Amino acid sequence: MSLTTESSTNFWLTRPFSERSTQIFLGVLLAALALVTLLHVAVPPGNPLHVGAYTVNLFGKYLSYALLAVAVDLVWGYLGILSLGHGAFFAIGGYAMGMYLMRQIGDRGTYGHPVLPDFMVFLNWDSLPWFWHGFDMAWFAFAMVLLAPGLLALVFGFLAFRSRVTGVYLSIITQALTFALMLAFFRNEMGFGGNNGLTDFREIVGFDLRSDATRLGLFLATGVALALGYILCRAIVTSKLGRVSVATRDAEARTRFLGYRVERFQLFVFVVSAMLAGLAGALYVPQVGIINPSEFSPIFSIEIVLWVALGGRATLYGAVIGAILVNYAKTIFTGVMPDAWLFALGAMFVLVTVFLPKGVAGLFRYLKRRKREDQTTDPDHQHTSKEASA
Amino acid sequence: MSLLQSLSQRDRVFDFMAPQASPVDVRHGPILYMEDVTVSFDGFKAINNLNLTINDGELRCIIGPNGAGKTTMMDIITGKTRPNSGSVWFGSRHNLLHMNEPDIASLGIGRKFQKPTVFEALSVFENLELAMAADKRIFPTLTARMTGEIKDRIDEVLETIGLKALRHQPAGILSHGQKQWLEIGMLLMQRPRLLLVDEPVAGMTEQEMERTAELLTGLAGKQSVVVVEHDMGFVRSIARQVTVLHQGSVLAEGTMDQVSNDPKVIEVYLGADDEEAA
């Protein structure tokens, strides 16, 4: 880590590209995207190697979860803020996208109203609530995907960090935040479709959501978003700001004493993380075809933390691995033995905590370190580590 | 100091126009000036009419029995505790009672806590990097670059504190003494004008103590250093000027010999300590 501190490129955003772990991550991700695309497009259906539209869609969903996990790992792993409410930012990003998709339906809804979405006609509303305006324009809706969760995180974080609320208290209020939002979004009067949420989407920027090509496009877009989000997070954690975050995580008062305004750093990282979570939600919604208040449920937010813990905290790539592994297992289990899923999740968590306390990523690091110790070719390195252990 | 107040003082350069490198005005000698400071916690006067002056470049040791107000005094200087009355000036321009902790830190007052708190997950090098005097706002920190100049500065401090060989090691593996030196190194990175060092040799071995004494005496002259310490042997080995605190105010001040022959001091502190030692 310190080697990159001293010898990496100077521009903060391109710094991750000189890191081996990021190179490997991007290589694997791009190869996976290319492979799935190839197997979907070039291999004819019926061939056992063919990847169907359903699977592409499923992978797209995993990738959006992976981006969400990266966002959580940024605040939990590097800043020490255990957010049990990141589902809220994910859901708000999802709702922003959902509102855009609802407006895209136009007069093709069941009731055929040119402007009002079906649920509003059903509720006998005669005009669009003010906050629905603008969502017919893609640029506005896509901006809201980032801005709405960002704004919520800004206000919430400002109040929390200014009052120096940290640790378990912060975890509890993030949980309360998402729970409160869930209850609010369940209400029909909120204007977000209540219990049923937003669904029955038709098309996104002119592409039919039911076509295989659009699904593949969404899958690829999610993959690219994951890559960009990962690079951004890596750039943040390898910058001096990232080291200030780690310092804050480990000794907040000490960091403040060095002259850093800790609450502003916390707020910055928290807002970036919330925006990434919102982006993940926005990519998730068109792929699953629905957004409803259950995404706000506290259980979901806790599950995200489990993915990160299983994959390995404070590595970012561990979060991606964790999100994909757990959700893949979930798909399998809920298909084969639906009742056993929660037990399986619990068992996975217990096993990883006992045998891999640093998650799957911790296993990689351990193997890498062993390999390095086996071939200590660098005499200088050997010298320092010997002295250190003395 | 509030902007309005500083603008109305026509006899000196405006604060915001003064060169950033040396914002502290020590032309009159003292770098720290505490007058009639009183702090009470629920009626208990932790600091009672304390008067203390530290000259620029001085190495001052402060001793006193437990509860004499040593730590509270440091808390006041660094802005952690606000006194009920009195005034505290840094140089002759900065009223510390009008400033918050980060501002005081960036003004050039560095404090080393009793218990070493280094960032264990970060390397020795990175610990020093974070401590360095720099623009500590968010975006400058995000885009900060590692320049040769910064590296040289960190190397220089690594040399001073004797941790050069351990630069890439995580600070968590350092021994207690090494952590104390790293802390002092982190203070030096801030290019402080005034160093407040709280019990630097607690828990150190004999050799580590000697090394620390060398380090601190080497710093005096370039910086003003205030050391709070219980270990009499250590104080004797570094002190030029000693201040004895007792019940929140100054009991005696002078060289180690003067102070240790003062009957009042012997009564409250040194006598008891010598008996303990014997």
TrEMBL record, chain A:
Keywords: Cell membrane, Membrane, Transmembrane, Transmembrane helix
Record membrane topology: Multi-pass membrane protein
Compartments where located: Cell inner membrane
One Pfam family matching this protein: BPD_transp_2
GO cellular component: plasma membrane
Spans traversing the lipid bilayer: 24-42, 62-95, 138-161, 168-186, 216-237, 265-284, 304-328, 340-364
UniProt name for this protein: Urea ABC transporter permease subunit UrtC
Organism of origin: Vreelandella maris
From TrEMBL, chain B:
Keyword Metal-binding attached: no
A Pfam match: ABC_tran
UniProt cross-references to InterPro entries, sorted A to Z: AAA+_ATPase, ABC_AA/LPS_Transport, ABC_transporter-like_ATP-bd, ABC_transptr_urea_ATP-bd_UrtD, BCA_ABC_TP_C, P-loop_NTPase
MF-aspect GO terms: ATP binding; ATP hydrolysis activity
Keyword field contains Protein transport: no
Gene Ontology cellular component list: plasma membrane
Key words, A-Z: ATP-binding, Nucleotide-binding, Transport
Residue intervals of the ABC transporter domain: 32-272
Xref: PANTHER family: CONSERVED COMPONENT OF ABC TRANSPORTER FOR NATURAL AMINO ACIDS-RELATED (PTHR45772), HIGH-AFFINITY BRANCHED-CHAIN AMINO ACID TRANSPORT ATP-BINDING PROTEIN (PTHR45772:SF8)
Entry protein name: Urea ABC transporter ATP-binding protein UrtD
Organism of origin: Vreelandella maris
